[in-house]
Amino acid sequence: MKQTHYLLLMLIIFSQGSLIAQEIQVKTSVNWEKNVLQLDMTAAIEGESNQPTGRYKTEQYILRQTAVITGEVLLPLKVDSWNTIGDLVSEEPVLLRKLETLSRTMKKIFTTATPDRKYLTVRYELPLFPYIADLLIKHKKPFTYPLNPEYTANEDFTGIVIYAGEELPWHGTNEKKVYLEPCLFPKIFDSSLNEIHSIELTEPKIISKWGNAGFSRSLDMNEISSRVGVYPFRTMARAIFGKNRTDLILSDRDVKMITTSAHNRELLRQGRIIIILPEETDTP
Q1: What is the pTM of this model?
Q2: Which end of the chain is more exposed for a tag (fewer CB within 10 A), N or C?
Q3: Which range, 51-65, 82-96, 253-267, is most confident?
Q4: SS3 for 102?
């Protein structure tokens, strides 16, 4: 599942004593199945486009702007049902500088020129985990989920698979058909909106590894068993919750199956959850 964003930046540089404005076109996409941010930066090749020096200068120019661009493109990324990274930066401005330093950890995938050699594109990739996640983890150990003494599940599973691949009601609104939006740290609730899973209920080292829940567009066990094992508990989301449409509501029966077993609660702490998304589409 990819989400694609476009951004046009006007960056100012000094060249031969004159002030020149050069555009960098930025395209970002997030592959939520692989947990990777892809960043393409394109600029006009300086000087003689058919000369190696022009290509080199342009690539170096793009490289110098990468830190600022990295911070900007991460701002719209959804963190949870109420916040984007931009919202968190508004509360903690120093976070922006930390985001900009992530440009040092990005991997350059390729550099390519257009067929007419007028423009140069540099592609980078940045894993969401651990790099972005580690900047957002606040707790040292997971919170404890309260036990329900009236019911105890008698079946242990190897993981949890939640199907959310179709349009669902958006809780608290009149909209009956909306798609789930992936985010860094999705939450799961019961029908009374009691929170049963979140980043705070997950081991910090697990969040660094792969987040509190993963995403897939496939039900093929060969693709998801590395996270949920060979005998996962399978359920369907009943509704979507939150301003950003990133959270899921499960039936109370399914919640009991998960939360009243010590073994199954450990699956939550270990983030052994896969959420099945709709077929791949590009969304803003």
Answers
A1: 0.88
A2: C
A3: 82-96
A4: helix
